[in-house]
Design brief:
heterodimer; A: alpha/beta; Beta Polymerase, domain 2; six-stranded parallel β-sheet; 17 helices; elongated; B: mainly alpha; Four Helix Bundle (Hemerythrin (Met), subunit A); 2 domains; oxidoreductase (chain A); NADP binding (chain A); porphyrin biosynthesis (chain A); GluRdtase_N_sf (chain A); NADP (chain A)
Chain lengths: 460, 270
Amino acid sequence: MHIMVVGMSHHSAPVDLRERVSLSGDAHSHVLTQLGGSRTVLESVVLSTCNRTEVYALANSTHAAHDFILTLLANTSGVPKQELAQHTYLLQGEAAVAHAMRVACGLDSIVVGETQILGQMREAFQTAFEAGNTGAMFNRMFREVLHVGKRAQSETTVGQHPVSVSYAAVQLASKVVGGLQGKVALVIGAGQMGALAAKHLAAQGVNRLLLANRTLEKAAVLASEIGAQALSLEDMEAALQDVDIVVSATARPGYTIAANLARQTVTGRRGRPLVLLDIAVPRDIDPACAELPNVYLYDVDDLNGVIDANVKERERQAALVEEMVASGVRAFSDWLTEQEVVPLIVALRQKGEAIEREVMASLVHKLPHLSERDRKIIHKHTMSIVNQLLREPIQHVKELSISSGDLAYASMFAQLFGLDAVPNDDEATESGAVRLMDVLSRVLGEASRQGQPQLHPVLR
Amino acid sequence: MGWPGFCFDSAIVAYAVSLSLLFSDVVHPNRMRNRAAVALLFVAFVAMTTLLFLRLSRLPSVIDYSKSDLALLVSWLMLTVTLVVDARFRIGVVVFFANVVSLGLALFAGGLQVDAREHWLPAVNLLIVHIVLAALGEAAFAFGFAFALMHLVQDRHLRQHRFNRWFLQLPSLAILDTWALFASAVGCGLLLLAMATGSVWGDLVLHRWLLLWPKFIATAICWAMYVVYLCVRVVRRAADRRLMVYHVACFAALLFNLLLVSGRTPAGVA
């Protein structure tokens, strides 16, 4: 069996193709129904968002399943299969599981660390589960995927470091005044940059937003759109006294806020800090303002510096998430191995109990005078012998199977205790040539993985 | 060396290594280092708890404490509060800054282990209340000091336009200012109560008010310094760099009072 993902995202396909392939409502249900009715695909989950369409599948043959999924997507979207093949990716085994986890963590999103994708992944799994497209394998795998996604959100700050100029400006102002709620902001300039800044500040929930412009009418139009108060540049000077944050974005030469004006403003503020964000080129605010007490002045270069710091921080946090992904893949691999050892353990316990029953029957036959209480005591002790004998071998075979990642130890264990060999579906279904290729690829793979714990064969 | 020495050394080593790992985790995040740092903080907590227990159990009376015991108790309170709060709210760099202060106090405690003590004191209950209030007040001031330090560091980043990882991790100036104000207000209230209970105890036991006792005068000066900080802060509505430097000076005065001013009363009581 192979776990695989066939899909397209912003990495592999342009937006016009992505929107044609995107599956919503009936198309999504149709694809799930087709996958569920197929004999090629054993389990499946379909994830479709504005930036990606992916089909996660558990299949006996990767080649056949890949072909089937491409045909299905081509038929549903009307995009030629050849074109689809050029813009989709196919990942298998460990890469497919790790990819699902990266997607759930937002590492594969356009805005790295965005949190919406985790909800979309959860919904995709829930829909597939309700449609009966998932079984034990995918139920467990997606449980692990969602768990890793949740951990990435709660244990790291991968999504909390904005990388746009307007967010960087808000972040910088917040580092001084501590959040924009309840604060008074002033935007100078009603041009394109000023309008963007004003809209962003309004969206951040400032208590009062003032909009000053040389032409009052232009400011009034924009102010009525976003619920701000329009001012002329002359009135702005008086209003500065109550303001916490100033964003200046005019295109006119000269300073909108000179050092003298800022000095007068600071005098009456009783130590309350004033953040001046100058996003205009040439600059609008006199650089000498930065020397004043309780005034924090930043220009476009500073905002770029904040963005650089945020990008680096995201990279650092992404490295932490990658560690979580690796540990999630490992946990899923361990679970897969355990599932194959469990029947063996059950068989061994049953054999032990059967031997104990035979011994008890023989004992009762030879010692008929034993009372019911004596029999119970002897039964309890013989069972204790069986349990104590089996405890360590069972523990060791579980640990060895998980650390080796294959069933060699389990098979040896079965032979030692005279049990039936561990069933291996691959051996039953795959041809000799495929098996040879598998052995070779494992040997080559294992040569490069020396020193690392082995994953379950399904993930290799 | 004995068990107390072993516990003290273990606590200091675990504490120092843990803070180094926390620092390293802030500079370059690594889950293993972070977990190891928290585990070592817990080791330091266990060692300090054991040390406090050993020290207090060997005293003839709970109130027969030394400056070293008090410094250790304040350090232990800070460590405990940061561990408990971090487990619930993940306060990140606050753990680092608060525990740097706490480690400093623990190191001071190690250097002040020899102290003259009286072995019998009347009106013990009142004195225990006084000690507990004073220890809690000093712990609150120590937290306030940690927040003031963080404020100064963050202000430096914002003034010099240094947008590094510390800048991203540290809370905003407004939040640090509020926390420092809150911690200092709590500390002032507790210290005032501690001074009041101490004075009443002096009246009951020594039959006179200890207004000219050096310890009382030094404590009153520290308290007044903090009250000045609170008044200026409330009037100004926000703290600037100079006020935070003054806050640090207040804590330096408090440390001087705690560790260097004689705690002996006119009757020779510690």
